[in-house]
Structures are given as structure tokens and as C-alpha cells.
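Retro notes, structure queue

What went well: the backlog is down to a handful. What didn't: a couple of records were mislabeled last round, so from now on we paste the full input next to the output in the thread. Example, using Molybdenum cofactor cytidylyltransferase from Sphingopyxis indica:
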Amino acid sequence: MIEPEAIAAVLLAAGRSQRFGARDKLAEPLGGVPLALHAARRIADLDAGVRIAVCAEESPLAGEFARLGFAIKVNAEPELGLSHSLALGIEAAAVAGARAALVLLGDMPFVRTDHLRALLAGFDPDEAPVVASAREGIAMPPALFARSLFDTLRDSSGDRGGRALLGAARLVAAPAAELADIDRPADLR
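Corresponding output:
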């Protein structure tokens, strides 16, 4: 178990959203609130020691994230893939001295704070340095990574992110609907 104050919560919100079309999916309303703000609010409810939002340049949501206590890291090269955003967020977590990083995706609006707490409860830096969400037994974000893995996460490339580390993760199950992500406009319905 790790306490929220000891972690950095990293919200990845700089994706290019190619399957969504020309609009910025993270700013699209869901229940009257921009999509990525749902995940940001769950992080705020968790009261993580450090909150980091990795955003694209000129993100319309950066100000909203900052009002929720997030430090903003700008990803000027989102075309380099998810791993580049992850590396920026993990670097900020390392600089902040976090003992672990909880990584969430901005397009997963239904994850509950209770699930995030369950990920923290399953963490052990030696026995379970990676704790991941599981939908039908498949490891996925949100996921918690021990500081000992920060260099590996910073060195990943493309759209793989921390996926290679998820194979050995301790899994915390959640309903499929809670772990759903928004990829296309139809998903907002």
C-alpha cells in the first residue's frame, strides 16, 4: 500500500485523437463537462501528492487542469506518440520526488476514485511494483508504477507507453464500463 501523498498522478492529455476526427476529443462535452476533466477530477479527489497533466500546446484544458492543482507539462511533439507524453510526465514525477506514478488517460472518463485507491492499496515497491487495472483479465491503464521503473518508462517509444511492463502487473479488476475509453464521436453517447 502506498499513500496518495507519496505518488505523482500523471494525466496524459496530449493525444492527437486521430480516430475522433478533426475536433479535440478531450475538450468535447460529456455530461456538460469536457471529457478529460472527468479524469482530472478523480485525480483531484484522490488528493495525490503531485498532480501532472501532460497537454498539447495551446490546450484549451490546461487552465482547467491548473485550477485543479495540476502542474502542466507541454508536449510540443504529440506526433511522437503516447510514450513521449508518458516520458514527460514521468520525468516530472521523478523531479518531484514521487515514490510511484499513477498514470491515467484523459479519454477514460468513467474511472472512479475508489478504483484508483484500490490500485494504491495493491502496490508494494518490491512485490508489486506495477499495479494495473484489469478488464476481463487484460491489464490496462490506469496503472501505478514504482519509482524503480521510471527510467524504463522514460525510454519507451511510440504508442506503447508502459504496456511492456503491464504483463507482470498485479491486477485490480474493474467493470468494463468503468474502464471504457472514448475513441470516436459515437463513444460519447
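Agreed that this is the format going forward. Reviewer comment attached to the example: The chain has a mean pLDDT of 90.
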